[in-house]
Amino acid sequence: MQPLDFDMASEAYKSANVDVTAPEPQNESQGESQDEWQRFLELAKEYKDSDKPSIQVWLDADVKCTLEALRQSGVKIPVKHLVSAAVHAFLDNNKKEVKKMLKTQPKVLKL
Q: What one-character DSSP code corresponds to residue 77?
């Protein structure tokens, strides 16, 4: 597993006025990245506004530091909702593979 870039996270943490929206897309892959980022932020807000029950999970310390840096840079959403949004977005973006793996399992998320 590659370690997260702490320099980037540290700089974001130090600068409380960082714009967390994605830059204008310059090509198709950057446009997709912007869409994924916006989807992540939308899901995070939905989780924050929801009263769904949550459970405790263990998180890698590097991931936690990066999410805290995002919060400090302007994404004012609790880490637990950022984690839920990131996992949800990942599952949604990979729904074909997830469905293949869960052929015989009940669906938990609406993919």
A: S
Residues 52, 36, 57, 100, Cα dihedral to 10°:
90
For residue range 33-74, what is the model confidence (pLDDT) as tens digits?
Answer: 788 889 999 999 999 999 888 889 899 999 999 999 999 999
Cα-flanking dihedrals φ and ψ of residue 2, to 5°?
Answer: -75, 135
So where are the chain's domains?
6-12+22-101
Tokens for 38?
């916006």
Q: How far is CA 14 from the centre of its chain?
A: 20
Whole-number Cα distances in Å, 36 to 13, 73, 75, 83, 105: 22, 19, 15, 14, 27
Please state the φ and ψ torsions of residue 55, each to the nearest 5 degrees.
Answer: -125, 165
C-alpha angle 100/102/107, rounded to 5°?
Answer: 120
pTM for this predicted structure: 0.62
